[in-house]
Amino acid sequence: MGNGLRTLVLPAVDARLIEALRAATRVVVLTGAGVSSESGVPTFRDRQSGLWETFDAAELATPSAYARDPALVWGWYEWRRATVLAAQPNAGHRALAAMAGLVPQFTLITQNVDDLHERAGSSCVVHLHGELSRPYCEGCRQGYAHAPGVPELPPGGKRIEPPRCAACGARIRPGVVWFGESLPHLPWLAALEATRACEVFLCCGTSAVVQPAASLANFAIDAGALTVQVNPNQTDLDASVTVAIRGPTGMVLPQLVRETWPGA
Ligand code: APR
Fold it and tell me: CB under 6 Å to ligand 1: residues?
């Protein structure tokens, strides 16, 4: 289904999408940073602030950046973790949690490293790019538990030396997948399997440029699923999805749930 592109103006939701969602047994949603942006978590393409103003997020999120300046990169991730801990899930996160109860087999795949889907009530979220809350040892890979609570940081953030592993003394690293690293095997397999079997695939709040996550939409298209993009901005996917909905996920997703399952 590569043709039939329609850009919709709210509040209309494409009737094909509503019918397909109602009839679907298997629905997959892939989310990206845009879904958390309405909770105040900056996306990767937003200009950074504070100590990180002169850095591109994509430059900090690499193994070589961590090797070169661990205190800078660990400080950045602590600053992001503090931002997420202070944030609340938004209506988009909640709509996806509700959708899980309305579709027989619902798979939520995210590129986000925050826990806002879980805090909105979603369970079994497939995290393709790891999680901020799960740092681990670079040496023995044992997990490391952050001190409870929100890290105390100046508003612009600060450099912080990473902690050391209690078991082997090696450096702890953020529990996220950096550019140039492989995705975790089992989450990726779960994402692929669900995508290849789904009838409806929604791509929400992602620039759809970072591989291999971005290729999931193409797998869904090849498998004959009805594919949807929800994004206020244009992306490369606009040309290939069945329905492109131009709008913020915090508005569009609740509306989609309301119109598809009125009274739910
Ligand atoms: N609702 C929906 N989409 C939004 C909203 C919103 N309210 N606000 C912004 N967006 C869109 C932007 O238009 C953009 O297309 O969200 C997208 C965010 O793009 P990225 O910052 O590139 O985030 P993402 O696609 O998740 O990035 C993928 O790249 O940097 C790596 O590992 C990192 O997981 C990340 C991956």
Answer: 32-34, 37-38, 43-45, 58, 61, 111, 129, 205-207, 210, 230-233, 235, 248-250
- Which ligand 1 atom minimizes the distance to the CA of 207? 15
Which has the closest alpha carbon to 35: 207, 195, 200? 207
Q: Kind of pairing, strands 136-137 and 172-173? A: antiparallel
Phi, psi of 79 (to 5 degrees): -65, -40
- Which pair of structure tokens corresponds to residue 190? 């779960």
pLDDT tier for residue 87 given thresholds of 50, 70 and 90: very high
What is the distance in A from the centroid of ligand 1 to the CA of 19? 28
SS3 label, residue 195: helix
The Cα–Cα gap between 71 and 52 comes to 13
Locate 217 and state its tokens: 């939409």
Cα of 141 vs its chain's centroid, Å? 24
Strand-pairing partners, residue 173, are 136
Q: Which residues, listed in sequence order, are joined to residue 176 by a DSSP beta bridge? A: 130
In this structure, are residues 50 and 125 in contact, taking their beta carbons and an 8 Å threshold?
Answer: no
pLDDT at 201 over 80: yes
